[in-house]
Design a protein that fits this description.
With 64 residues, the chain is mainly beta. The strands form two sheets. The protein has a five-stranded mixed beta sheet, with no helix packed on it. The longest helix is centred in the first third of the chain and has 7 residues.
Length: 64
């Protein structure tokens, strides 16, 4: 798969919610796009990602 512009190998499809947890992202502070489509947070547990997907995870940063 391609994660934020970098190749990352995954052996078998993985649940997006689990992937986010394993990669140490805070699900409340990110937006996820898979293959050009934004995934609503309510769907993270039902979406599977595979090795041929392009995933972008953007973290929200506060400041001013």
């Amino acid at each position: 798969m391609r994660l934020n512009g970098t190749d990352k190998k995954i052996i078998s499809p993985v649940n997006l919610k689990i992937f986010i947890e394993e990669e140490k992202y805070d699900a409340l502070k990110i937006a996820v796009e898979i293959n050009g489509s934004i995934i609503p947070r309510s769907e993270y547990a039902s979406v599977m990602i595979s090795d041929n997907d392009v995933v972008e995870i953007v973290s929200f940063v506060g400041g001013g």
